[in-house]
Amino acid sequence: MTPQISAKLVVASADAAIDTYRRVFGAELRQRYTSGDRVVYAQLELLGTLLELKDADEFDQLATPGRPGVLLSVTTDDPDALAEAMVAAGGSVVFPVADQPYGARGGRVADPHGHQWLVQTPLRLGPEEIQRATAAMDG
């Protein structure tokens, strides 16, 4: 078997996160397993990829403000709409969607489960232009 990597989000309520990601991203639940009242594994198909999640247990530390855990990056033609949908689902704006100097329109939102999402259009600049623009951002 070829080694694979998967992102797995640890959340306080997997069922609430599944509902959020269904509403915001149109995610489809592929698998969901429980032990007692805890979701120990769920798999969603989300924007053409698979994402795993689970309820936190005694071995996990939840993402908290100031310690966002995983930053997920979503490339989309309409980051404004995606950011608005996340806020409507109970999330918050980390930094607003705007035209960025590195050639994308993008921003960052936090979902109500402690994870942050960078939502942006595809990059429109080449690698050298992106490097110059990002270097200039530092002053």
From TrEMBL:
Native source species: Desertihabitans brevis
Protein's name according to its UniProt entry: VOC family protein
Domain VOC: 2-122
InterPro entries given in the database record: Glyas_Bleomycin-R_OHBP_Dase (IPR029068), Glyas_Fos-R_dOase_dom (IPR004360), VOC_core (IPR037523)
Pfam families, alphabetized: Glyoxalase
